[in-house]
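As a warm-up, study this chain.
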Amino acid sequence: MTTSQPPRSEDTPAGFGFALAAYIFWGFLPLYMKLLSHISPAEVVLHRVVWSVPIAGAVLVVLGRTGDIRAALRNPRMIAMGCVTAALISVNWGIYVWAITSGNALEAALGYYINPLFSVFLGATLLGEKLSRLQWVAIALAAGAVIVLTLDAGKVPVVALALTLTWGLYAFCKKWLPIGPNQGFLLEVLILLVPALGYWAYLSTTGTSHFGGTPRDTWLLMGTGVATAVPLLFYANGAKRLRLSTIAIMQYIAPTMIFLVAVFLFNEPFGHARAIAFPMIWAAVALYLWSVLRKSKT
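Now compare it with the structure written out below.
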């Protein structure tokens, strides 16, 4: 079975192309999800799962790695670990779809801006990794931005923090899954396939399923498989061919695009609090990236 590879010490054109395609895909994804605003997030997620399976399976067939997934499905420990990552990613998908379709795309962007800093924090608290002063300042700035939004709204920005927590914990747990990224993704959607099909059957029997209702809805729901699987697979293959510092910089392409889409295309209100909080986040990002770049040169 394929295990995780050590971080690369150099970038490759193929890696850059894969990663760039993934992040641009994710940046434009809100435009696609907005077309599904009339469908419940749970139904959208079930179709993301169902239609990702054939795509992920086809990739493994082409790569000749189907033996890995067969071995994983016979390994109870692997399945248990896969259940944890599958649960986290499905919850993340559901929150993301709800955020976009309910007019909270700015909170989604905030969540994905904070996420890398949360991952750094997890490394320090759970793995004992040492952080530089710049990284601690970056984390403090991000926490300060959350406090500003909380004081202004009178409530914690739950959507942003939920996206940060679920994706950050997913990435953390994924590191311990001893299987390649393509195989791991197929394992996760196969685990989710059973409850997804069960929920689909329930919607069909109660007459509340949008699949088959109109050609537009049917094709849009089927397309969620491509919208889900393709960027994840691109990212997985790009990450293997790039340095960690390069990935650290590129990961901010998607939330920046989501931010621009939310403000200029979805016309979501920016407000005074966000005008303070987002520059704090951008400053935190700049400090974090500077610390990564400085470390990569030593």
